[in-house]
Amino acid sequence: MRSSARCSGSPRNWIIIMANWPYNTARWQRLRLAHLAIEPECRGCMERGELAPANTVDHIHPISEGGPAFPGHDGLASYCPACHSAKTARGTEAGAVRSTRPRKGCNPDGTPLDPDHPWHEKSLRADGSGPPWNLHNQLVSKGNL
Question: N or C: fewer beta carbons within 10 Å in the chain?
């Protein structure tokens, strides 16, 4: 978009143009294509042991938190639409609609993706520590109702 084209129009059009910045620039499009060539697979899927093509390039450090608009490739990550949506819904860029729901699914080793899942507590791990010994006290039988 040439600067003369951007100068014409109402202030409302300027708001729309700036709301899409830097994603509506040729510089971002070149950076996006170059990054997808370097990292063509979804980073989120790879963490789960899956393989899916990426089509979205995301800032690791959001612009809204002071991250650079045009970082180097080490400041970008490639995602498929589902993983990008899940990441954005849990990130600071989600604002008031931020999701606190845990991420569903497991890593390739069978452990839950959600770091706050009870599985990650020592008493529930499969490392031999097992459940607490007083577990039978917590069970309810028909006679105790």
Answer: C
